[in-house]
TrEMBL record:
It comes from Jiulongibacter sediminis. Pfam families: DUF1801. It comes from the Bacteria. This is YdhG-like domain-containing protein. SUPFAM superfamilies: YdhG-like. The lineage of its organism: Bacteria, Pseudomonadati, Bacteroidota, Cytophagia, Cytophagales. Residues 33-131 form the YdhG-like domain.
Amino acid sequence: MAKADLKTKENEASVLDFLNSVENETRRQDSLIVMKWMEEITGLPPKMWGPSIVGFGTYHYKYDSGREGDMLKIGFSPRKAALTVYIMPGFLRYEELMGSLGKYKTGKSCLYIKKLTDVNESVLKELCQESWAYMNEKYG
């Protein structure tokens, strides 16, 4: 099976133009803070993935079904309902950190935060660092 035709692809759109267009002031400011952290953690510049995700690094995946593609190693998106942080390995391996993170919701690899003041920022940074390290160890 060929690579899946994903909407979420790295592109050359301006990350700052995108973030500056976020209407919710708190979400915009929180996004700029998270972007700075992720730049520090990864040592990479932010890239747009699709129209609304800011990502760092790339990995290639291949499922048993034969489906394969490229995806960001870590990133975030200032969605209307919440700031979504993409922790690609999921959250099971980070149970202890999650217990002291604060107020949040999760999906499979999505961490939903209403505002940064709802969470312990040092725990969130550590979660991002550990996720980044894991993705680099697993995918190079």
